């Protein structure tokens, strides 16, 4: 049984019109044995499990063995720039899913993919200029701190 230390929130960095099938094909194109996320939330709020939680997904390099990865479809605008474009349905489903996962893994920290970036200036805060990625395009630590 894996020890889950984190629940990582992601965006797929795709159009909100992207499908789960397209997402799985992208993982396959990259040559990944397992998908990038355990769960993905569609624009309509549908939650799809891509991998059993005991499996190791490919969401955050260097941390995958100790986390569960959750993503919403979207995260970029029509020009490919990072944006929080979660629908109300996605927000509600993410809250529900993260609540369920945190109940199952109560000591796990919920945070965004960007929060795994290095603290380059060593001030104890990972600031926007230190983000390796903007993903999930909002402050997941702040938004889900009360779960």
What does this structure look like?
There is one protein chain. By secondary structure, the chain is of the alpha/beta class. The chain is 21% helix and 15% strand. It has a 5-stranded mixed beta sheet. A hairpin with a 5-residue loop joins strand 2 and strand 3. It is globular. 32% of the residues are buried.
Order of strands in the sheet with the most strands? 3-2-4-1-5
Fraction of residues in helices?
Answer: 10-25%
Determine the mean pLDDT. 91
Proportion of strand residues: 5-15%
Structural class by helix and strand composition? alpha/beta
Distance separating the two termini: 24 Å
Assembly category: single chain
Topology:
Layout: E1 6-11, H1 20-29, E2 39-41, E3 47-49, E4 67-72, H2 88-104, E5 109-112, H3 140-143
Parallel strand pairs: 1-4, 1-5, 2-4
Antiparallel strand pairs: 2-3
In summary, what is this structure?
This protein is α/β, with parallel strands linked by helices.
């Amino acid at each position: 049984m894996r020890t889950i230390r984190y629940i990582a929130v992601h965006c797929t960095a795709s159009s909100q019109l992207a499908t789960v099938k397209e997402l799985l094909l992208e993982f396959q194109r990259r040559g990944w044995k397992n998908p990038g996320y355990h769960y993905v939330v569609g624009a309509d709020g549908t939650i799809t499990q891509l991998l059993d939680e005991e499996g190791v997904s490919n969401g955050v390099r260097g941390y995958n063995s100790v986390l569960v990865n959750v993503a919403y479809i979207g995260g970029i605008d029509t020009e490919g720039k990072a944006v929080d474009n979660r629908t109300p349905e996605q927000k509600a489903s993410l809250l529900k899913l993260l609540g369920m996962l945190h109940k199952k893994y109560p000591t796990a920290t919920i945070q965004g993919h960007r929060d795994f970036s290095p603290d380059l200036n060593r001030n104890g805060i990972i600031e926007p200029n230190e983000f390796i990625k903007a993903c999930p395009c909002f402050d997941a630590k702040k938004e889900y701190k009360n779960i």
